[in-house]
Design goal:
single chain; about 290 residues; alpha/beta; Rossmann fold; eight-stranded mixed β-sheet; 9 helices; about 20% strand
Length: about 290
Amino acid sequence: MKSRIPVLFLVAVLVGFESGVSAQDPVKSPIVYKTAEMEKVVVRRGVPYTHEDGQPLNMDVYYPPDMKDGESLPAVIIALGYANGVFETKLKDWEFYVSWGKLIAASGLISVNYETTQPSQDLEALMSHIRGDASALKIDADRIGIWACSANVLTALTVLSGERREFLKCAVLYYGLMLTPDQKYRDAITALTKQVAFSVQGIEKIKVIHGDLPLFIVRAGQDMEIFNQAIDHFVSAALAANVPLTVINDAEGGHGFDLGNDTDASRDIIRRSLEFLEFHLKTNDGRY
């Protein structure tokens, strides 16, 4: 049975009516940063990556328009923390996430969007499938990054702050619900999930902040208090671990600024996060 939570309620909570942001419907609206190359991206849709109760779960793979035959490129997984069925439209098909997939691919990386029923478990299965079938997917199995936003960041952290995976080279985390190994905000986050139905599956695996995993974190200054309290605590812990860390505080931005704030400031943050991904996945060791 599908949730009766309306999409506009999600928008109110996660895109920022409370902070005065001009909210857009993430199902139908793209992010505010656009390039001509985005419309030339090649998308391979409906690729099975695992099965649940005998039914396949599929991923969509976005390829740069100028990718050469025989070439393999690093990939960015758009991590998702809401199971299929919470909303009428699967998150991987929301125009918000589709446009992020296209933008990442247009920047010269492969991006992956996917279905999920058990977010933490499925993210593990997705990474395993991508690495196991890397040649057919044209993906460099040893160079994978993660992009996540909002409550989806919790699911991303189950793999970023658990066992160290050398193939995970970096992560970009926008206005996220974040837990540190001390689990300081776990009770508040668990209470919030009863309203918005995001996943807390696997958060017990958040045990360490790795000092060799570069992170790009965006804090929205006008966001709800719980988000920024959790981000501030995580950033403090990451600095204590001497993490290669980029933090941007969008002082005037609200939750979902990349969807609702059509400003030069928003576009600059998006551009800088793409440069971060490209640097850590493509150029920092001279392989590409």
